[in-house]
Design brief:
By secondary structure, the chain is of the alpha/beta class. The chain is built from 15 helices and 13 strands. Strands 2-8-7-6-5-3-4 form a 7-stranded mixed sheet, with helices on both faces. A 4-stranded antiparallel sheet has the order 9-10-13-12. Helix 6 packs across helix 11 and helix 13 runs parallel beside helix 15. The chain starts with 5 loop residues before the first helix and ends with a helix.
Length: 385
């Protein structure tokens, strides 16, 4: 038998799957894989159920049902004062990951360069490489995660086609500052580059931090692909409903790729998400407030364990530095030890770097029930104190 695709075959099983299997084997509390353990808002779930019986369950329009595309455009106006034509600038996708894949396949020509800011979501690089792109990376390092604009500028060349910006950033839990966004916009315009903005966690921002879409900056509306995720906004990650907002000239080739990837998304889930996006401000405010309390609960719990929490500005991930424990091994070995010996599972942050990652840092997901967080903290304290 002839060999399979060499690019995808070069990647192993994701670290999330590896650690989750290990957690099951050792009956460990899994704070590694990033999804909430609640059911999502009742009113949105009810709409999905109603729509399942009230409408035909056949192929909906390729770009998405009109109700959701209109709701995405209205959401952009409501929260960011963006003027969006839902008929030419919005497309529904099967999750944010498919939105990324369609964008990369639709825009990248073989040999094009794509700038990535590490640590980054693990699907970026494999899909870009499979589309024929060449990844150029720069790194953010804990605990500040500051953007080195000089290093970013050096990553650009005449071959640069795209830059991927993930804010709020998973991992890193960073929300990009206004000055950093302005620097990125300036570079993108100077090099005629499209910025793919993964904004899956746009409504999960804490304290005095503020999420500002790059699309709102002067001159950027025509060169940004903005990606949102219903899974993160409504805690229904298994639904896999995402959405793209971009200029018509960019949406056309992205839609071609989408057409040949999945074509469309479950119609009842689309209509439920459309309803969800019309929820009043209390829903979106409470989402961040509730998750902030869980972040603080876990952060307080780590005190005295030797695991030092790192500031979390957004997303539902808390990073912890374990250097003070003098553990004999890297972050992969430490996460394995946590799972097998302590009974708490985390994810090694080095998995989100292509090389030389933050070797003394692990990531915990805190979007869990309070009793689950408390049980994990209890195990950590009993072991390390």
């Amino acid at each position: 038998m002839k060999a399979a695709n060499s690019i995808l075959s070069s990647y192993g099983t994701t670290v999330f799957e590896v650690m989750s299997r290990l957690a099951i084997e050792h009956k460990s509390i899994n704070l590694g894989q990033g999804f909430p353990d609640d059911f999502g808002p009742d009113q949105v779930l009810a709409k999905a159920s109603e729509a399942l019986f009230d409408i035909p369950n056949q192929y909906p329009p390729m770009l998405g049902v009109p109700e959701l595309r209109q709701a995405v455009a209205q959401h952009g106006k409501r929260f960011y004062n963006l003027d969006i034509d839902w008929q030419t600038q919005v497309m529904v996708t099967t999750g944010a990951t498919e939105a990324l894949a369609a964008t990369f396949f639709g825009l990248i020509e073989p040999g094009d360069e794509v700038v990535l800011i590490e640590p980054c979501y693990d699907c970026y690089m494999p899909i870009i490489r499979r589309a024929g792109g060449i990844c150029r990376t720069i790194q953010l390092q804990p605990p500040q995660w500051n953007l080195d604009v000089t290093a970013l500028a050096a990553a650009f060349s005449e071959k640069t086609k795209l830059l991927v910006l993930n804010s709020p950033q998973n991992p890193a839990s960073k929300v990009y500052r206004q000055d950093e966004l302005e620097a990125i916009a300036k570079l993108a315009q100077a090099h005629d580059v499209v910025v793919v903005c993964d904004e899956a966690y746009e409504h999960i921002v804490y304290d005095d931090h503020c999420h500002t879409p790059l699309m709102t900056l002067p001159g950027m509306a025509e060169r940004v692909v903005k990606i949102g995720s219903a899974g993160k906004t409504f805690s229904v990650t298994g639904w896999k409903v995402g959405y793209i907002t971009t200029h018509p000239n960019l949406l056309a080739p992205i839609a071609k790729a989408h057409q040949f990837l999945v074509f469309t998304t479950a119609p009842n889930l689309q209509r439920a998400v459309a309803f969800g996006l019309t929820q009043d401000d209390d829903y979106f405010d409470n989402l961040a407030t509730t998750l902030a309390s869980k972040r603080d609960r876990l952060s307080r719990g780590l005190a005295g364990t030797g695991l030092k929490p790192i500031d979390c500005a957004g997303t539902y991930f808390l990073f912890a530095d374990f250097a003070e424990l003098d553990f004999d091994g890297d972050d992969v070995a430490f996460c394995t030890y946590l799972t097998t010996e302590v009974g708490v599972t985390a994810v090694p942050v080095s998995a989100f770097y292509s090389q030389n990652g933050a070797a003394d840092t692990v990531r915990f997901c805190f979007s869990k029930q309070d009793d689950v967080l408390d049980a994990a903290v209890d195990r950590l304290r009993r072991h390390f104190t």
